[in-house]
Amino acid sequence: MENRDNPLPILLGAKKNPDLDVLTKVSDQDFSEKLLLSASAAGDAAHAQRLLLQKANVDSKDHGGRTALHLASGGTARGAEEVVKILLGQRALANAVDHVGMTPLDMAMLVQNWGIKKLLEQNGVELQPILKRKAQESSWLLKASELKLRREIGHTLKSVVHLADWHGTKVVVKCIKMKRRVIMNKMKRSKSFDLSLASELHELDDVPVEKEDCSPEEAEIEHMCSEELLREIELLSSLRHPDLVLFLGACLENDMPVMFVTEYMPEGDLEHYLYKMRDERQVPHYAPPLWRTIEWSMAVARALAFLHKFPVIHRDLKPLNLLLTKTLEIKVTDFGTSKLMAKAARDSEDGSVDNDLKHSTKGETQMTLGVGTYNYMAPEVVRTKKYDEKVDIYALALIMFYLSSGKRPFYHLFVRGQGPAELLERFAHGEDPRPDARQCHRRLRGLIERGWAVKASERPSAKELLEDLEEKKNLTLGRPGEHGAVISGRSPKGGPTMTHSGSALFLR
């Protein structure tokens, strides 16, 4: 009898069985693939590299349908990120799906390995189908046919926001601006959509729905805007807090532009509310009563304390991104520029936590220079990529100044002809101008000044700020009526300036 381990029968003239060679090769290949899966799970980059050089199948799967990339992406071993780099270098399938519907990106997010998440996103991961599957599992996948689009209520350089009806409820729909015409066209031509704006329909009468040609540059910008919107959906879908505008779902249909839906905030944003109050009262500056300023500030601080636990930095906190309910409760919105930071942080030389350095194999996070709105942008955002969640505290301090004084931050510079660009230039040159906290209520001055401290490490955390505000609230006796303050060089009648806060009048 022939024995594959005993060559003697062959030497004596017996013929070699070719089937045994095939079985041996298959067995060896199968064994190599199992070793690759094991090495990937263990974060053993050197062993994984050797096995791939020996032609182990980079996309082989275990009994659960998981590839080596799945196992490395979901691993917590020190070498996991290096293994992922090696596998992606060998063209591993970045969008492979296991038997329970998980992708390598899902695995990385499950263990909160943001470095691997970044690598996958840079190597062909398609976010939309992943989000669509997540939406189906979590029951927030919506159909565009369920929405009746109403009037536009806001827009930015990249996106447009519409009021809409959803099963009898007023909601808000956000999409990228470049896709707005596509949505309108489809809503006009499909019986499954209902567009209530006759003017919008008339505008599109002569626009063929098929004509969507654009230059390569426009296509690249459109892709970047779509990706940003998808990342905002990814972030919003995982956040639930009473002080954040409620995310209701997203439309991720293949033949429609991406849209997401949030609750409708009938009183609009804080900036326009303050404008409206100035107009109604015919005053140059309007400041809400002290108790309301404190309550609004506490709501924003609660939202930031929640976000910073993940940790997520908002990076564009400003009155336009604070929305008001019918009862004038405030909520934080617009996470288009928000950043999910790496969990692992290390101390910098000056003792401040520096967990926002450029991306490396240690899982640190690359921050973007100059993100945010000029008036509320912390100086360190202009100067360096080494900034953290304290940029949100700085912005909140400026918002508190606005609410307490009735004057926009740095108005004293702007009235002298300097604009936001000049302000950023001063920051870039190492200057640190600040508003005059003496124009705020005396109970808030110290807290505001701590919030915009020059050194980010000296600013309070959101939790500390919330605790301080709670103390201020307890010191505020009762709730006066809805009376704001007239703040200017002179009162409307020409007398000395007075600030109304609580039941007291303070002469400036």
TrEMBL record:
Residues 477-508 are annotated as: Disordered. One of its GO terms (molecular function) is kinase activity. Residues 147-477 form the Protein kinase domain. PROSITE patterns: PROTEIN_KINASE_DOM (PS50011), PROTEIN_KINASE_ST (PS00108). It comes from the Eukaryota. InterPro entries: Ankyrin_rpt, Ankyrin_rpt-contain_sf, Kinase-like_dom_sf, Prot_kinase_dom, Ser/Thr_kinase_AS, Ser/Thr_Kinases-Pseudokinases. GO terms for biological process: integrin-mediated signaling pathway. It holds the Pfam family Ank_2. Belongs to the protein kinase superfamily. TKL Ser/Thr protein kinase family. This is Protein kinase domain-containing protein. It comes from Durusdinium trenchii.
